[in-house]
Amino acid sequence: MKIRYFLLVMMLLILSPAVVGSESCTDCHTDESIMRSLVEAPKPKGNRTEGAIGPAGLPPFIKPDVYYKRYHVDKTLLEKDPHLLEGCTPCHGGDGKALDKDDAHKGVVKRPSADMGTCGQCHGDITKTYEKSLHSTLEGFVTKMSNRLGTKEKKVFMDKVFGQSCRSCHATCGDCHVSSPAVNGIRTGFIQGHAFVRKDEGKTCAVCHGGRVYPEFTGKNAASPDVHYQKGMPCTKCHKKAELHGDGNAYRNKDEARPTPVCRDCHKKGSEKKAIARLAHGKHDDRVTCYGCHVDGEYRNCSGCHDGKALSSKPGFILGADPSDKRVVTTLRQVPVTRDSFLEAGVTMENFDVMPDYRAAPVHRIRRVTDRTRSCDVCHVNRKGFLTKESLIRRGSRSNEDVIFKMAPLNME
Length: 413
Description:
Elements: H1 2-15, H2 24-29, H3 32-38, H4 89-92, H5 101-104, H6 116-130, H7 134-137, H8 139-146, H9 151-162, H10 173-177, H11 205-208, H12 213-218, H13 227-230, H14 241-245, H15 275-284, H16 290-294, E1 299-302, E2 313-316, E3 319-322, E4 325-334, E5 358-360, H17 371-374, H18 377-380
Antiparallel strand pairs: 1-2, 3-4, 4-5
């Protein structure tokens, strides 16, 4: 391999004298034939097959014949993108003069933006707020799990579970603006040949939020997409930069974070065209979330994601009490965590029952008209979709009963 690499580089230098003074990094990484020759695709792990997408929305395994593109830099960017004018080594390290592959890659930093100081040299105002954002800290995951853990277990969890698996979801600047983020260690490579892309939601948002949210939003998990997507509204139409990059404050979870979009930002109270809509909204205001009525049909609910055995999910529609405000009805998503999920790491989850296995779900599958907006009987008489004691997760948290909404009889006066 070393001999082949050396010969390829020397051939390139002989045939292209204009690049002799450049870094050896670009001599190889911008040449498609060299990258195709040197980069070998790994074999799928477990039962994953080429091109397959897992039930939890894992990205497809990249075909071997195009795997090299993960490392292939678009040569036309070298003189156009200001980030690349200084070459590769200022950010990636390594030896830009070496011709031997191993020597050239000694000390190479694969993800330079993992160090906020790298991007912060020019974008200090953004990195200063981003380092405290939930995308960066993943504090939302820590908070939710910590509630179930005993005092002594928290350190074990952070070291042996969160630090070794959950932490891999941490998104750096480059994971959204240069290369698609990794999911379970799988990366799809550059968004656009190492260009610094302002946004490409299908290759960034969709990768991390592709198990449930993005497929629901775009209609891949349903018969029809969210009405907002259908009208050409991307994620960032509602989720603004200040939310994604953070506002400089450290939050414990997404429910505390500000600013976050709410339906009333666009759909002002009292602006309804039909009287029946104004009446319905007035009657349900502060009692039912918009999702409770306007989510169209079933959405994905995990049924075996965190039991240490297999990834599995199934469609379902669940209405119940919002765990953070049990006076309000909303759509719930089933996210079960078994009592022995982290037993191998020595975590027994002493306080397992303090939290329900259902979360308030802002399901991105909105339609103006649904079966619940057509008839009051769907909820108030038939109680369709409402969580019941009989439909609760088996062997789940004792707190699950707390999110069963006890509806009062319908008052037609």
